[in-house]
Amino acid sequence: MTHNIVVSLYVISLLFQIIAVYFSFQLFRKATIYRIPCLFLMLGFLMMALTRIHPLVSPLEGKIFNEIDAIKAVVISGLIMIGMYYMIRIYTSLEDQGHIFELDAKTDAMTGALRRQETFHRLEQEISRSFRNHQPLALVMMDIDHFKFVNDRYGHLVGDVVLKNLVAFYQEGLRDIDILGRVGGEEFLVILPATNEADALEIAERLRKALQDHVIARVNHEPIKITISSGISIFDPEQELDLIHKDLANKYFQQADLAMYRAKQRGRNQSVVWSDSESA
Question: 20 to 30 A Cα–Cα from 113, which one of 28, 39, 174, 222?
Answer without folding.
Answer: 222
